[in-house]
Amino acid sequence: VMGWVKPNSISGSDVLLHRNNFGVAGFEVYMNTSAGLGLSTAGQYFEKGSALPDNTWSFFCIKRVGTTAYMYINGEQVNSTGNSANLSVNLPLTIGNDASKNNPFSGSLALFRISGTAPSAEQIAKIYNDEKVLFQENAQATLYGTSDAVTALAYDDTTELFHVGTSAGRSVFQGLR
Q1: Range 42-63 burial, b when 16+ CB lie within 10 A, else e
Q2: DSSP calls for 126-161
Q3: Is the distance from CB of 36 to CB of 49 less than 8 angstroms?
Q4: CA triplet 132, 30, 92: central angle to 5 degrees?
Q5: How far apart are CA 81 and CA 108, in angstroms?
Q6: How many CB atoms are closer than 10 A to CB 93?
Q7: What is the pLDDT of residues 36-81, one digit of tens each?
Q8: CA dist., res. 31 & res. 77, Å (int)
Q9: Rounded to two decimals, what is the model's pTM?
Q10: Which of 86, 56, 87, 91 lies closest to 74, judged by CA?
């Protein structure tokens, strides 16, 4: 599980992602004031240990390889622990709250992804570094004009710029910016 989170005055426990039967099976990604970012899997708790800053975008990734869970914040591993909980239970997925709708997330969420495979530490760092430009103030990461119909593409391997044409004109990207 990975995505971008911008907490806004977390109070108590706010749920980012919930696929759980309230501690019996599945998993829950949450934030709280004392433990920061956390993962609960069938009664096993795994936490960052300190809160993420309010009103600031942070990237997180929680992955499990075998019976070990790993937590990354902004591309860096911050914790790992043994975790053998059964996650194969067929339960509904809720983003931004739990199934009872009693713990809504106080803030913003973006670019959430869930995968059946775990990315490497290098892939997590690359995803963070590629995407962080999208969350900077005045980030220019959209196509020029009002049309999103791409009519031409070109990559300049000398300048490493990607040119995207629409009916309104040309947009030039370096990475995602």
Answers
A1: beeebbbeeebeeeebbbbbbb
A2: HHHHHHGGGGSTT---S-SSS-----EEEEETTTTE
A3: yes
A4: 105
A5: 27
A6: 12
A7: 888 877 667 777 777 788 889 999 999 988 888 899 999 999 988 8
A8: 17
A9: 0.79
A10: 56
